Every structure is written in C-alpha cells, then in structure tokens.
Fold these 4 entries.
Entry 1:
Amino acid sequence: MKKFLSISAFLATFICLLLTGVTEAQASEAASIHQVIETPLPIYLDASEESSVLGYLTQGDFVSAEISQSEWTYIHANGFTGYVFSSGITKAQSTKYLVNKKEGTYLYTYPSPTAQKNGTVFDKSIVNVYGTAPGGWSYVQYGHQVGYVASNSLKLPTVTKKRVNAVKGAQIHLTASPSSEEIGTITHQTVVEQYTSIAGWAYVEAGEQKGYVKASELTDPVSLGNKTYNQGVAVANGQVKRVALTFDDGPDAKVTLQILAILKKYEAKATFFMVGRNVSKNQAIVKQIYEEGHEIGNHTWNHPKLTSLSKANVKQEIDNTSNAIYKAIGQNPTVFRPPYGATSNQVRSVLSMPTILWSVDTLDWKHRNAAKILSYVKTSAKDGSIILMHDIHQSTANGLENVILYLQKQGYELVTVSEILQ
Ligand code: ZN
C-alpha cells in the first residue's frame, strides 16, 4: 500500500491522460455528486479488485457518480473514469450560487489554473456548489458539467417568488438553452422560487422540481391580488367548459386519501382548503395532494369566524396555516377561503392571496347523503363554477365518483380553482 500512497492523484491523472488521450465523458443525465470519505480510495478500471488501478482519490475529493451497483460505483473524478468502492464515497450536499463574472467562469478538471478546462459557465447562471478546495476553488455542477471554478466568480443569489403563468405549464430545461433536455413541467399557477434570470431564461425551484424555464412563462405571484371570487370565468365558445371542485376542512387521514384516489382515477384536479391544525397532523397527505397536482389553499388554523377576531388574531390564523403548509410542501398556499365564507375588509387587508368563496354549495356537511351531492351539482353547476365540498365526511367521498362521472359526461374539465380565475 505504501508505494501507492506516494503517487499523487495529480501525477496519476497526468499519466492517465498521456496514456489514453483526453476524452470528455458525457453523462446522459445529470450525475449525482459524491465526496470521498476514505484515503486512499483506488479507482479501478473494472468493478473488480483484480483489475488495474487507474489512480487514487483522497478524502474530500469530489466525484460524479454515474451508476451505483451495491458494492461498486462508476465515477468520474479528477480526469479519471472508473470504479470505486461505494463505501468509500458519500452523497454530497450543495448550495446554489450565482455566477457573477461578465465573461463567465471556466470549469477546470481539478483545482488548478493549469488543469484541463471542461467548459465555461456564463454570467448569471446558477450552479450547485458542493464544497471548496484550497486556493480559492469551488466544486460545482452545471447541467451535465462538473468541475472547479474560481470561488471569487460566484455569489449568493437573491431569491424572488414568481408564479407559472403559461396555461400548459412551464417546461423545465436542464440548462438555459432551448436545445437542452426537458426534465419536467411545472404546472400552471404554481408559485416558484426564482434564483436568476438570464437571456430570457429563469432558474426556478418548486419543491423537488428545479431547472431553467422560459422567463416569459412566469409572472408576479401576487398578480391575483387579494380579490374575492365566488365563481370563476366561463371560457370562450368552442373551448372546454371547466369547473373547480373544492374540498374544505381536511386533510383527513381516511377520507382525503379516498378522495385523492377517485380524483386520480378520473384525472381530475381539485383544490383543498386546509385547516392548519390538520395540516400539521397529516403532513404526508398534504405532500401527496401537492405532488398529485392539486392546488392547496389556506382555511385558517382553528376554523374561527374571522369577522369576530382582531386583525392580529386573523393574521395569526392565516400565517400559522401558511407556515404549516410551507413546512409540508416547501410552497405557500396560493388561495384562501375564510370559514363560513365570513370575510371583511379587515380580513382581506392581511391577505396576499385571493379569497375563494363558491357558487355551488353541495351542503354535504349538513345532509351527509352521498346521492344528494350530485343533485345539488346537477341543479347548479355551470361553466366556471366553484363547487364546495368537505373532505372530512365519508358520505362526500362516497358521492364523489358519481359527481365526477356526471360532470365529465357533460363535457366539463375538472381543474384547480386558480385556473378559472381572472
Ligand atoms: Zn370550513
């Protein structure tokens, strides 16, 4: 072992490059960055201790891991490509930084200005920084590219909130380029955190979704203001009619899950106005609601009649609930519904989101009769309706399937409430 230790990774890299020539390895998707926790960590040509050792890594070195079998991980590091023991590396955490250099900044294979340049990252790009190396270097990832950049070319970004304005949602790209691969879509009306805007592109995050979207597909998150709506807009002739199903007072550990399963079965979207104290008890369900594409609304913490409370207490009811929702999904609620529909100028003055009332009351809380829900919907639902139900009553879950079947047969698309606001 001793004689191997005397060979530095740099020298080994140099020899390796001489032997094999410079090849730029391109990953098919963004690799995950790991850090070496064992010194020395040999890099093998194949996933076998019998195969040749290409070089050694030292504790703290960064590697980009491509494929992980249980015992071996295929990596790129310091110009090498090969296999290391999976136990010798651990997944690294990153922080987002903004490139703050007019001409951009070079990515180097290892932390030295004489190292091979892997590419340039443009000014105002967002990179993931996994750590630093002596001499003023930061190890970063940008799209498929990884390497070291000068730390003084980076600064912390200022994060602002935006809302997806494109009706079809905003397509996420890996880098700020139309030719870079699409890695997902952020749905209409989602509130996102924007880290930078560069040549018509914005780097945004919404929960687990992150990447570059077209800046033109975003708008100010509070453009809906704190107006009050009791119904949505009807669409122009020839377009699909829409209604918004809304569920109040949950989440409930049993009924909400039943409702989610029915919505999923019919590819219907809905809005859940949640009571804060139920949010804190059912965080996993809140996350599931969000991840399945439904909208999440604030319905106060304790369900009081807000018009009887002081302004400070109204604010507390609303803020505590928004904070609990943020804790569960990493996003604030986008809409608000006051309990009993009781609102006032004082209540609206503490809100930065729209107040949503309703145009069709199913009275499900009162009659607790699955079949009656449908009869109220049949009588009153029209294009742009906001339909009020509660996801805490078993009878509501039991009646929902027939409500959806009826509405879809009538040609309605079932959408989140923000989608029918104007
Ligand atoms: Zn309620």
Entry 2:
Amino acid sequence: MIISDDEPKNKQAIKQARTENLRPETVEYDTSFETNIRPKTFDTYIGQEALKNTLKISIEASKMRNVTLDHLLFYGPPGLGKTTLAGVIANETGVPIKITSAPALERPRDIIGILMSLKEGEILFIDEIHRLNKIAEEILYPAMEDFFIDINTGKSQTVKSMRVPIKKFTLIGATTKAGALSGPLRDRFGIVHRLEFYTDSELAKIIKRSAGILNINIDDEGALKIATSSRATPRIANRLIKRCADWAIVKGEGVVTADIVTSALEALNIDSSGLDNTDRHLLEIMIKNYSGGPVGIQTLAVALGEDIRTIEDVYEPYLLQKGFIQRTSQGRKVTPLAYKHLGLIAPNAQMSLF
Ligand code: ADP
C-alpha cells in the first residue's frame, strides 16, 4: 500500500495518524443530538429479534473465549437502527466505539489514523461502507484479518514495506446496499445481517419510549397512528413524534392523540400509509407517463429529478415493502394496490390479477 510517494510526506502521515487519534469526521458513540432516545441496551433496542439473538450468542461466546467479537456487517435502508445497534453492542460488550463513515476516509491517512488509534477490543463503526475507496479497502483487509497494516514508503523503485501492528478490534460496517460491497470486503465479515422493517406494534413501542424520554404526552392510539405512518422506520417515527407534539401543543391540549396525529400528518402531506409527496409523485409519474411501467430506474430518476441512489435507498425499499411497486427484469412496475391507494383504477384485468 503506497500512502505517499516520498518518505518525508509519508512519515508525516504516520506521525499525524499517531497523534491525531480522532479525525474531526469521527465521532464517539455518544452523539449529543439524540443521546437520550438512542437505545443503549438490547432490552431497550426494540425489534430485530433474530439479529439480537444471534448477536447475544456471539457476544457471550467472545466473552467466554476472551477474544474480540467477529467483524459484523449490517445492511438495510436508512434509519432502521444500524448505528444504534453498533452502540448497543459496544455498551453490552463494555468496549469503546468510534463512529465514522466511508466518505470521511477518503485519504489513506484517514483510515490508517483511525486504525492506529483504536484501543484493544474497540469497535470501529464505518457507515456507508460500500463507499470505501479501493485503497482504503486494501488497508482494511490485513487490519481485519491479522490486525496489522502494511505501509509502503518511498518511490516506486525503492518501495519499502513496513508492517505496523494495531490493536485487536471489531469492525462493524453498515450499508444500505450489501450488493455494492466488493466480494473480498464482504467475505471478511464474520456476521452479515439484514435489518428488517419494523412492525406497527414495534414502532408504537419505540414511539412511546421516545415520547417518555422527550416528555411528550401521547396516548396509545396516537402512538399507533404515528407508527402506521412512519414507513416502518424508527428514525421517521422519532421525527414524526416531535412534529405531532408541536401540533398537540399549538392546536390541541398538549396530548398527542389519534386526531392530532391525523391533522399533523395531513399538514405534512403524509398519508395513511406513510407516503409523502415524493413517493406519490413517483407512483404517479410511473402511472401517467409510463402506463404503470415497467420503467427503468434511470428514466425514473430523470423524470422525478432525484438521483438514482436516493430512489433506490430511500423511496423504493418502502414502496416495495408496501407492495406498491414490483421489480421486474424490465424495470419497476406499479401494482394494483398502488392504484387503489391513489384512488385510481388499475388499467386492465390482467394487472389486477397479480
Ligand atoms: P441507521 O444507522 O440504520 O441509519 P440509526 O441507528 O441512526 O439508523 O437509527 C435511527 C434512529 O432510530 C435512532 O435515533 C434511534 O433512536 C432510533 N432507533 C433505531 N432502531 C431502533 C430500535 N430498534 N429501537 C428503538 N429505537 C431505534
């Protein structure tokens, strides 16, 4: 791995990596903005039961064998709790955690710096890990496998390789796209797990817990109503609680009830299935401009004025999960359920069969 083409610069990089324990883009787990509502234990981390059980066993086994936990890869749409779960694991294992994301690890010295700063057993969480560049990935391979990094110094003809040991650590990678990870990187994770969308009752529990912490008065119906409109996603549920609480204070009597939620969501243009303007616009474009599809993602992105990644990562997973669109080899197709949801009639009988 060449991290610099001349020695002095390279030495500087190593020195900087040693002294600069934490780069500014790297944050400790305890992020202040939502410190309180982020669960820190398996008991308060609601849902994802299968994954939690797997993790509990792995944590127990690693404690019994006195070894660091295997590297873990979590994938799934944004806001489902990947970062939070990494924090829970750190807390339950009793180890510190550093949180960063792939775009913050652009230069070799960024990843080298962070790897060299890790304490024994520490967890390194890298968000959006599919966006790591090739060089950073190659630095990670020996670090993940044998806990050292290879640093090559000097110019091409006089390259010297230096093997620098690092502390044993656990890498937790998170991605919205497991398929975008290179094979060699994916293979180095001992546990690869998809986070599932949440059920309404799981979300209602999350909402009631967050409301309690935020001192928001909410009744059961209000919590359930927010749950059904939160795209099966805790981050959205937590955001909606705050908007509904504002509404309850200004327009109601301070309690978040089902009626308050209904009018707050109406004002936010969020419908009963949790779809917002962009979701509906996306479905309408497919129906009006492309007779319901199939339509390719690129065409859709241009028509919608959104980038492909946002459509794929943010909008599509939930529309697929709701059964409003279908993926076919020719592109995306709107389902009869979506027509019904939008108050439209599906074009032909054949469509309404599937
Ligand atoms: P991701 O990393 O997958 O994008 P986060 O871990 O940042 O998602 O979670 C988003 C928010 O949702 C967090 O603030 C957290 O409070 C909440 N959250 C996520 N998962 C859960 C859960 N299982 N139980 C309770 N709250 C959760």
Entry 3:
Amino acid sequence: MTPHIVPVRAFTDNYIWIIRDHFHAAVIDPGDASPVLDYLRQEKLQLVAILNTHHHNDHVGGNASLLREFSVPVYGPEHESIPTLTHRLKECSDKESEEGCAYLPEFSLSLRVLDIPGHTAGHIAYYGANLLFCGDTLFACGCGRLFEGTARQMVDSLEKLADLPDKTLVYCGHEYTLNNIRFARTVEPGNQALMEREREVEKLRKQNTPTLPSTIEMEKATNPFLRCDEPEIIRNASKYSGKPLTDRVSVFAAIRDWKNHF
Ligand code: ZN
Ligand code: FE
C-alpha cells in the first residue's frame, strides 16, 4: 500500500505531517506531542520514525514525549543541536548512496536529504516519491525568515527546491498561505496566476481546509521569492529599497525585508 500524508494541526498555524498506512506512522516536525499522540491512538497507528527539518522548538518540541511512548529513530540535520536525534543527516551528492537518506522500511520509502540553509544554518528538507517536506524554508507563496543564514544562502536553497520536478508535492511547516498571497500581490500585482490562487485559497480557508500541499509548479508561478528575475518584482523591490536593484540576491533580500515589515 502506498503511504498517504495527513496533516495534524499544532499551536496556531503549524502542520505536523504524518506519513501513514493502515498500521504505521512516521511524523515530520512534531513541535507538540499531544495532537500527534491523539491522532495515533484514534487511528490505532504505531509510530515508526520521527523526522526533523530544523531545530526550532515548534518543530522538535514533541520529540522527547513521543520517544517516551515509542522507541523510534529520530532523523534530523547533522549540523543543528537537537538532543534527541539518533540519525544525523546531511545531503549526499551520490544519489545512489544510502548515506544522506532517511529510509522508512514500513512504507518502502526512501527520503533524500537536501541541505537548504537560510532560515536556520543547518536546515534540511526530505525529498522522495514526489513528496517534499521543507519545514520553514519554502512556504506556499512565501519563504522562511533569515534567522541564521544570508540572502545568498536562502536564494540558493530555494533554487535547489525549485529545480525539483514540477509535480512535486510541497509540504511545509505552517499555514501562512493567505497572508503570503496578500504580500505577493503587493509585490507582483500583475500576476494572473496569483489572483486565481488567492481566490482558491480564500475558499479553502473559509472551509478551514489546509491550503497544502502545494506543488513546485504552483510555487514557480506565484511565489515572489522564486520569481526575483521578474521585471515587475525587480521594479517594485527597487522602489521599496529606493535604489535600482539588478541581481537576484539583492531583489530577494529587498522583498524578504519588505515582507518582515508588511
Ligand atoms: Zn522555524
Ligand atoms: Fe516554524
């Protein structure tokens, strides 16, 4: 049976993603254990693995409580301090190698690690079987704040994700989509696809339905942080900074700063 992916909500706007079949579950970024434990009990599932994308507490805070109930491997970034990790992962350039992978035998699923620094210094993503779990780096129509990295790093990380196949399903860590779209429309008011997306997302949010997963194709068409080469975005970013911006990194840095104050 192919696994499917279910969101468990935590805090105000976090999604804890569960990979599951009829018997097993793996959990990505369990910031809080209790909604995960409720879900596992209700669905009579056995936890088989925990995967973390970065060290922030709203992504790892539930690890210890889950480990008290289930003795499972905990995958996470090699270069971040997450005390509960059992498997420290980094990107492996050899795509055939097992190194740099989280293998979940219950689902015959191998998730490859991508290094995507920017939001935090050691942030990683998991990619496999057309699924991308990217934590707080790429959001639907947005991207994470630069807490520990540079604009250059974040641009490279986002480009790495944008290079994945168009149909890749994007599972990120927060429900920020509508707010992100409001900002994106300010930066790129002429983008038709963005207007359509806003209507779709408004409909979903009215029904309290998650706006995720997104796709890489959708993000390339509507996410301003992946569109720093677009003339309209360059123009508006330059207006915001009060000086002409020419390269992609400075356009990115300008709109990231703009979003922080939006
Ligand atoms: Zn974070
Ligand atoms: Fe977060």
Entry 4:
Amino acid sequence: MAIKENQLKLYNSLTRKKESFEPINSPHVGMYVCGPTVYGDAHLGHARPAVAFDLVFRYLKHLGYKVRYVRNITDVGHLENDADSGEDKIAKKARLEELEPMEIAQYYSDRYMDNMDALNVLRPSIQPRASGHIIEQMEMVKKILDNGFAYKSNGSVYFDVVKYNKEHHYGKLSGRNIEDTLENTRELDGQSEKHDNVDFAIWKNASPEHIMRWNSPWGSGFPGWHMECSAMSSKYLGETFDIHGGGMDLRFPHHESEIAQSVAANGKEPVKYWMHNNMVTINGQKMGKSLGNFIILDDFFSGNHELLQQAFEPMTIRFFMLQAHYRSNVDFSNDALIAAKKGFDKLMKAEETLDKLNPQDVTESAFDVNEWINNCYSALDDDFNSPVLISYLFDAVKFINSVNDAKVAINIESLDLLKKYFRTFVFDILGLRKDEAVSGDSELSAKLLGLMLKIRHEAKLNKDWATADNIRNKLTEMGIIIKDTKDGAVWEIV
Ligand code: ZN
C-alpha cells in the first residue's frame, strides 16, 4: 500500500499541538520508546505503553513506512528514587534474592517478553540493553563535558542544568520553568556534590558496595539513568529521529533530561515528535505495591488475585486498553473488563459471521462500505484514535448481523471489501487475535483453583498443616504446582 501523504496527524507533546506526520527521511521512520526496568514482573503499567506504541508501529507499517522501532531494556543505572540516590533497582533485587544482577535482568526481561507476546505486541526491531552500551554512554558523557555542559565532582559527572538553561530551555517538554524550580530547590545541604539541586548525574561514582560498575576516565562507576536512552537512540536512529514515546510519567525528569543531554552533546534537537501515553488506575486508584492493588499481568491471565473476580484473557486486556485513546487515563475494574470481554467476543463472532454471509444482486447496500473504510482511516489518522475506530467497527458488526438475519442485503463487491477491511482493522492494525482454547472451562478452573488456594491459606492460618499439605500434594499429583511467595501462594500448571 502506498503512503497516503500527510493524512496522519499526531499530537506532539513538545509543541502541545496535533501536527501532520512528516518523517525526516520518508519512507523510513525512526521510533524509540522507553522500555521496562527489568527488576519485577510486568503489570498493567507496562502493558499500556507497549500496546499504545504497538498500535503506532502497526499503523505506520500498514501505511507503507519502513519503521525501525527501538525499545530499550533498562538493566543498570535506574536508582530507587528515579533520581541520583538510592540503590540500583536491579542490584537491590539481586541482593535480596542472592542472585547475580544479570540473572535478575535476564529473568524479568524473558518474563516481560512472554507477557508482551501474550498481548500480541509485535517485537521491536531492536531491543538494546543499557549494560551493553556503557561505552556509548561514556562517549556521550565526554562530549557533554567537552562542550561545557557538565562538571566532575568526586568521581561523578553532573549535568549543569543552570548553565544549559541559560542557552536553551530546560523544561520545554514538561512545561516547567526552571527558574521556579531553582527557587524551590536552592537549599543545598552542604554535603552535596552538585552545584545545584536541579543538576543530575550523567555518570555516577560507585560506592564500594555497588556491584554494577565500570572503569571510566572519571573513576569506577555507572551511567545515570537518563543517559542510556540518549546514547542508544542516537546510536540506532541518528542524532535526530522521528518519534520518541513513553509514559506520561517519564516526561520529567527522564525525557526532559534526554533532550538536554542530546542538545548538549550534539547541538541538535533529538526528536521531532514526542508522544506520551496516559496512565492506568485500578478502581480509580493509582497502582502501587503499598496500596495492595498491584496486579501483575500473569495474575490477570490466571485470575489468581483477590481483587479479580475471574481470569481475563490477554486479548480482553488489549481490547480494553484500545477502547481508550492512548492519551486518556484507563481505569481497570472487574465490571469494565467483563464489559470489554463481551465487546471483544461480539467483534470476533461478527468476524466469523462474515464468511457465512450470502451476497445478493443489489446495486446499493444499506451500508456504504467505502465511506465506512474512509471513516475508519480518518479515526486512525486523527492521532491514532482507537476508540473511534472501534465504534465504527461496531457499526459494521451491527450491519453484519443484520445481513445474517436477512434484514438487509449486500452485494459481492461490498462484501469482499467489508471482509478485507474489517479483518485489516481488527487483526493487522488493532492487533487483536482470537485466543486459542478459550473456553468456559479454563475460567471455571481458574476460579476453582483460587478457591483451593483460599482453603489452603485458611488451613495454614489455623495451623492445620495436614490439610494444607494435603491440598498441595493432591494438586501436585494433578500437575499443578503451588508456590508460596511473600505475596501469597500462586499456582502453575506444568
Ligand atoms: Zn528512556
């Protein structure tokens, strides 16, 4: 398919406007999306950007662009408080589990990929790891130092935000005014290595107990978290590329700092279009481990979590997310997911019905298929408006069912077009697929297993070890392994 020039408009968070999409080097498109920090299981907060940018990737490819999609894996340098202090998230998990940090990173990136496969998220063209690009990051730190936008302090290198902001606007992506920030953060405790609190580490000196460390011209240390995305995006996509995506929460400080680092190193704006997906809430609340509403994707797929009434198939989760525009908040609840499942099943049933329809010898159909196709494209061209596209798909579902009930007729040409485009939008672009072996049986099994775990949990609370062990042993005989974790028991079919 040829590219429909300048039809697609997308919202650029840098200019805060919808803009016509014009790739720098059409038909080639470079797209970079911040990927996971691999120290724990993937949850809904990981699924959201993956699905949102999968739609972008799929649609751009459908339009005929040659897309190089880079999504990184953060396996070093992301400290606990997202800034310059605290323990490295992966090193901490490794210490707690008594494993090598790279075992943690490998284990959770494998699990992440499994979850993304289940959600039918296409694999990116390149998945670079931060730990595999330490040299590139050091080179960029050196360039920033040479250009005078960073300073050395106690074996660390800090980005000089105040100096940068005199020539450029630090805060233009997040809409912050750095002068206001300076007023609020001027208090330095005298212990700080930084000239100013707004400065951030681009290279961090490693304390003696820090495991992940590399020798550098500034001493033994590791790169600052923001460095990896600047270094890897410019390595694989060039100093200026088309689209940079990620969650809204990454706009500041992560993406703001990426812009500053790239401009300071290369003297160029790194990104033409910045795109940010909105967040996920659960029953109206922010998701968080401390709030007890932290549900990992595997829990959704198994139904094995006390907040879930049942298991939800990956396609229900995907469809539910696509029912909201990527820039809108998504709120998960059992009712909303059950409704999404009904909608998804209706869509799949209509797709099956398409093959049963008999065309009639009519000149005009009650449903203008050409106009419908144009409407579907217009929805996608309007900043990837998937909810509007889905509403058009349900118009088609209604029509398909009416033809099937012999209430209205369709001719062969229109039917062929409808079949082709209905499937293109549903499968190729929205990336939905029919779940195999989905039946009432698997949902019922999940519920029954959940019940068994509850009974076993109660037995354990009552110190009735015989019953607890009996349940575990009987399930093991059936090929269902029970594992006790600090967050409760989980089951796995082997
Ligand atoms: Zn990033």
